[in-house]
Amino acid sequence: MSILITLIVLAMGFQIIWGLCEIAYGIALMLLGIALYIVASIRDAALALLGKS
Fold first, then answer.
1. Cα dihedral across residues 27, 31, 37, 38: positive or negative
2. pLDDT digits (tens, 9 = 90+) for 3-37
3. Residue 53 has pLDDT above 80, yes or no
4. The 3-state secondary structure of the chain, one letter per residue
5. Could you give the CA distance from residue 29 to residue 14 in angstroms, rounded to a whole number?
6. pTM value?
7. Direct distance between the N- and C-terminal alpha carbons of the chain, in angstroms, rounded to an integer
8. In whole angstroms, what is the distance from residue 11 CA to residue 46 CA?
9. What pLDDT is stored for residue 36 in this prediction?
């Protein structure tokens, strides 16, 4: 009986850790997207300024 409880606790712990990893992965992808967007915006602005001068 105690083995079953241990397995259930381990499964719940694994699901919690997996959920945290998925959240971290999502945040990392979001930050990467924001960083790429900022870099593209800066590059576009720089190209526009260089084109005017």
1. positive
2. 999 999 999 999 999 999 999 999 999 999 999 99
3. no
4. CHHHHHHHHHHHHHHHHHHHHHHHHHHHHHHHHHHHHHHHHHHHHHHHHHHHC
5. 22
6. 0.61
7. 78
8. 52
9. 98
